[in-house]
Design a protein that fits this description.
- The strands form two sheets. Strands 1-2 form a two-stranded antiparallel ribbon. The chain has a two-stranded antiparallel sheet with strand order 3-4.
- A hairpin with a 2-residue loop joins β1 and β2.
- The longest helix has about 40 residues.
- α13 packs across α19, α13 crosses α28 and α15 packs across α26.
- The protein is built from 30 helices and four strands.
- The chain folds into two domains: about 130 residues, no CATH class; about 500 residues, Up-down Bundle (Amino acid/polyamine transporter I), CATH 1.20.1740.
- The radius of gyration is 26 Å and the shape is globular.
- About 65% of the residues lie in helices and about 0% in strands.
- With about 700 residues, the protein is mainly alpha-helical.
- One of its GO terms (molecular function) is L-glutamate transmembrane transporter activity.
Length: about 700
Amino acid sequence: MAEEGQRGGYSRLAGDEEVATASGGGGGDYDERKLRLLGYEPQLKRNLSLLSNFAVSFSIVSVLTGITTLFGTGLQFGGPATMVYGWPIAGAMTLVVGLAMAEICSAYPTSGGLYFWSARLCSHRRWGPFASWLTGWLITYSLAARAAHHTTTPHTVTRLTRRDLPSNSNLALLLSPARAQASERSAAMTWNKAPAADAEAGGGGDTGHARLRELGYKQELKRDLSVLSNFAFSFSIISVLTGITTLYNTGLSFGGPATMTFGWFVAGAFTMTVGLSMAEICSSFPTSGGLYYWSARLSGKRWAPFASWITGWFNIVGQWAVTTSVDFSLAQLIQVIILLSTGGNNGGGYMASKYVVIAFHAAILLSHAAINSLPITWLSFFGQFAAAWNMLGVFVLMIAVPTVATERASAKFVFTHFNTENNAGIHSNFYIFVLGLLMSQYTLTGYDASAHMTEETKNADRNGPIGIISAIGISIIVGWGYILGITFAVKDIPYLLNPENDAGGYAIAEVFYLAFKSRYGSGIGGIICLGIVAVAIYFCGMSSVTSNSRMAYAFSRDGAMPLSSVWHKVNKHEVPINAVWLSALISLCMALPSLGSLVAFQAMVSIATIGLYVAYALPILFRVTLARKHFVPGPFNLGRCGVAVGWAAVLWVATITVLFSLPVSYPVTKDTLNYTPVAVGGLFLLVLSSWLLSARHWFKGPITNLDG
């Protein structure tokens, strides 16, 4: 760790500070060397920041332009329903195309873009020239046609009943997807291949492997995950089907449709600031330790051990709490599925006892530990399948449920109805709205998994950040679609929340059940829909155990956990198997308080949101304060916007920590008290006490495990 390592535009810490040096000069030289490796001499002035680069694409996408000019088409073909539901569908799939292009762009950053990529990816000599020629001319003509198309705005706006757009406009619409498909086909050819060698790596070297050695660690885990697999783990843990389904009752109770519809974007926007800041740090320090390692490197030599200790324990306990809450939620959903399948709450259905539910929970955790004991190639497959299941599941449910329902809510109800009948004694609209945000914020957690998987991800300094940002972005899009689809099938909020209904007060289960029963006379279709959600929650728990185990592996590797030498061992498949089973066991133990009191259990689980976000915020806080002047970013960076985005992230976490600690019911009694501040405060006191009494004498922060 004492040695300085340099690579591209960033370097290792020397003591408590980073030295902003690079081989041959500043960060710009790295880009120029990269361009020369691709065969070009730098001729254009390299002066655009990340914000400027984004601004060019954002201005060309221009939602005002596209929606305005083709609003007539949307009205003609399906109208409002097509536009409202079609937008997240097209958006999600477009983001898939963008991710594929981003991966290739990272390997070949040249102005030629698509046509250059096609040449380099199409088996070189035989097909390269033809692929380049075809792609290049498709791009050229479609861009020209698109520009011409924009001049037809008056024509399309004033003649909505006709479909005779000028031929160049029609060609633009046809060729624009064609150029996207060309890049998508290229991506499919290289999705599992190593990216082009970087300027410093040489040959076929992996930038993540080289960077890990610079950070002081040897490669022990098998590095076999692609950017898609890295994204899949975070996306599966966020799992909008899991978070929204399990906390839909909270959303309905506090504000209802309006809070869920608009609050989702409020929480999503600020969550993205947290994700962007984490992605920037992850690009500089791509190690499985993630947050606690970042805190150590960003807080300076004096504070590194303490910062690392606090962040690490909040992170790992928060992750265990996430696994506990996810798998316990699945056990409860299985109970509801059994209840509805046997006649429902009002038809003599079987209501499982709390002991049966905890047995379900234990069986689920056992299976998750078994799956996570498999080689990483198997986990990669399960992770990608889980991401696909979550994506397709959202689309199926958001379309099927409101379509089947015989009675649907109006758009006015979905977008403007604000429910104040919460039976909690709270009458302030702002207070109600804030409490309703918990559904959204609880859902949008767990994306630090991409950071914890970086030691198993190819070119992790690039692909780790992509995994974090894309998981949040796609979740925001598909999650909003899911909320809209389900809420359009909502009619009677008090009945859905009533424990006397068929689903025992489980709101979404009742929505699904009633939608199919009202049309077909049987709720079996609704039970099948709940099965789709149950599988998604299962995969969420599986990915959560994966992330937990990597964090436990890294934390024990640095000697921070009791019996550290046991937990960081890897088996012959290069899997930290002891850490896997430890994570499953602790998550089971954290669920046991539910046998005595659900209030105690909810206090434990509250750490899943607030505790985890505190861990997210600490390294970002150090980045914008103690490390503001000496932080040297990796390949992904926010440029001059980094500090502003970081402060927005820190302030948001501070805000939700206070807001989610407020009482959720009045008058406050021992049964209605919000135990979140007690649980989080108790965790802080426990971690601080262990530091003062013991750890400060022996824990020195991250340590190298390199030989010699």
